[in-house]
Amino acid sequence: MIAVVAVIFLLHWGAEFFIPLFLGILISYALSPLVDQLTRVVRYRVISAGVVVVALVCALGFAAWSASDDIQAIWQKVPVAAKSVSRTVQRIASKPSAPIKEVNKAAEDIESVAKTGKTGASAKAQAPPRVSVWQLLWTGWKGVTVVATQLTVVLFLVFFMLASGNLFKRKLVMLSGDRLAQRKFTVQVIDEIDGQIRRYLVVMLVANTLVGLGTWGVFALGGLEYAGLWGLVAAVLHTVPY
User: Fold this and answer.
1) Cα separation, 65 vs 107, whole angstroms
2) How far apart are the first and last CA of the chain?
3) What pLDDT, in 10s, does the model give residues 151-160?
4) Tens-digit pLDDT profile for residues 217-230
5) What is the CA radius of gyration of the chain?
6) By three-state DSSP, how is residue 201 classified?
């Protein structure tokens, strides 16, 4: 139990390292068969790994460029949608028995009790500190920098894992023992793990494709604008929990 807790704490503490590492491992597993086939043509695995990684980056860039017009159009409509939602909320909140007023009152009571130990009008909640625009910009910029850095790390990890081929497998086999039976059993275990991971990735690809196509079809039948973009977003976000 202590070892399990220690491992969970280590994964949580080093999430910024382990998440790109695991993503790189999964992506390299998915692209490894393609690199193997390309290596038979170009003979050098480093070149085939570089070609596959560059093709992956170009495909992602092309997908982003293809959806840029719809994203820009949606972004331009955000203020109008925000005003519409705001007017709707104000209209609901203006009613005497609006649920929003009750929720706000309950939230104020809970906050006042937490800060002063008193309820109702006897305790005035302190005004929240103001956040400047520069602080928001700096926070957003830091988030974008972290994401860009992690994506770069993932791409380099994928490249080096694909270029190394079965180097790690050979090292594990050598460390498994001196007997032929031990090494044979280790190879069988590694091959079984490889097969299960690849089957898992295939199932994920099929599930994401079905989710994207289903979302696009339902939204298109409902007359929603940019149904294709929302289907793509649904397919990508469906991967996030896994």
Assistant:
1) 44
2) 25
3) 888 889 889 8
4) 999 998 888 888 88
5) 26
6) helix
Q: What gap in Å lies between CA 185 and CA 173, rounded to an integer?
A: 9
State the number of CA atoms in the 13 A half-sphere of 120 facing the CB.
1
**The pTM of the whole model exceeds 0.70:** no
Tokens of 119: 């309820």
18 Cβ neighbours under 8 A, 6+ residues apart = 11
Percent helix, strand, coil in the chain, to 5, is 85, 0, 15
Closest to 19 measured CA to CA, from 153, 190, 212, 114: 153
* Cα 13 from Cα 120, distance rounded (Å): 41
By C-alpha distance, which of 30, 8, 3 is closest to 18?
8
DSSP assigned state of 179 = S
